Each structure stands twice: as structure tokens, then as C-alpha cells.
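Q: Here's a chain of 47 amino acids. Please give me its 3D structure as C-alpha cells.
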Amino acid sequence: MSTVAIIGAGPGLGLAVAQKFGQSGFSIALISRTQHHLDSLTASLNE
């Protein structure tokens, strides 16, 4: 299984990239400045 790392992940482009790669079977590694951003993105991706 391949992994994609998204550095500077946010609710716009970072989330869109994570969704696209996640739908293609990639594992996603998110890196962001704040835990709040990571929690928000993780919740969105898990839906």
C-alpha cells in the first residue's frame, strides 16, 4: 500500500488531495500547524 504525505494540510486543497488519494486506496499522512486543523480534517475524511 502506498502513502501520500500532505504537508500544510488545510480545509481547501489539502483536504481535496487527501480525499482524492484516499479514494484511490492510498494511506494519508496529514501534517498541519495545529491539532485543531488535523482533528477537523480527520473528521471530514472519516465521513
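Q: Can you summarize the key feature?
A: The two ends are 21 Å apart (CA to CA).
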